[in-house]
Design goal:
With 328 residues, the protein is α+β, with helices and mostly antiparallel strands. The protein contains 8 helices and 10 strands. The chain has a domain at 44-253: paralog of FGE (formylglycine-generating enzyme) (Alpha-Beta Complex), CATH 3.90.1580. The chain has helices at residues 2-35, 79-82, 102-111, 119-127, 153-157, 166-169, 278-292, 300-312, and strands at 44-47, 50-53, 57-61, 86-90, 115-116, 204-206, 212-213, 230-231, 243-245, 247-250. The longest helix has 34 residues, at 2-35.
Amino acid sequence: MRSSSFASVVSVVGSSLAAVAIVLVALPAAAKVASETSHCPAEMAQVGSSCVDKWEASLVVIGDGLGAAAEMHSPYVSPEKTGAKVMAVSRPDVVPQGHVSLVQAKDACTHAGKRLCRADEWKNACKGPSATKYPYGETHVAGACIDTGRTGPLGKLYSKAEMFSGKAMNDERLNQMPNTVAKTGEAASCTNAYGVHDMVGNLHEWVDDGAFHGGYYLDTKQNREGCDYVTTAHAPTYYDYSTGFRCCADVDSIEAPAPAPTPAPVKEEPKAAPPPSDEESSLFARLAQLIDSPLGSTGGKAGAALSLAAAVMPIPQGSGSGSIKRKR
């Protein structure tokens, strides 16, 4: 009777533990599915029916592989100068690509399976859901974006007579000077509820209307303010140290991440039992002795099993004797 009751308890506890395990496995799977409902890749933000890169573009050189080890193109040199075939990427905490023309920006976005942003979607992303003049609000806040108190590098390296030459404007030392261009996302306040960063200041951004928008680290007010800033005076092949870009895409043109499939039950292979402890070895030895002993008052092998159970089972708490009563 005692053995039967003990087996029943073990069975119930085992079933309960199995049910808890199923719940614990199911919860992470459900959370993963919920986190994968975005219609844009992780590096892009959804703005209406568009996907917009969260960060200003940097470039990787297209080679045999495009994994984590892909070679980064120098952000201080034009792709035209290096002759490299490049692809745009959107990443935080990197120096964004300057010295890039409209033509080069379009090609880099195309190689990434995206396109250059349209003027309307770029401005909508910059202004945020509240349609404010700056990403963070209606009024300029000094230092909120990379547009306040920055160093003018041309004046540090060139005279007034030569600083606006093509050679000077594309000197790769310019954006390597301290307090000039910043890494993407460095200005934590220069964002909005869409989650796009640095759309005002840091680098000008080419848009497919043939202009660059948003200003750069030395000017976000000369040609209108903040998200309304537009410079239209340059040819599509023009580039200098202040020109950058980001990519966009139509939501339907980007492959949405598929929900995670429900994992099939895993059939666990039997695991080798760990070596017995000294106490267990002693108990096993006692069991062997009892089993090999002649039948007697303990009831032979059944008595041996009960004797061992008495040795290993915890003593119940209460008013009783705490021992297992064996049937004589």
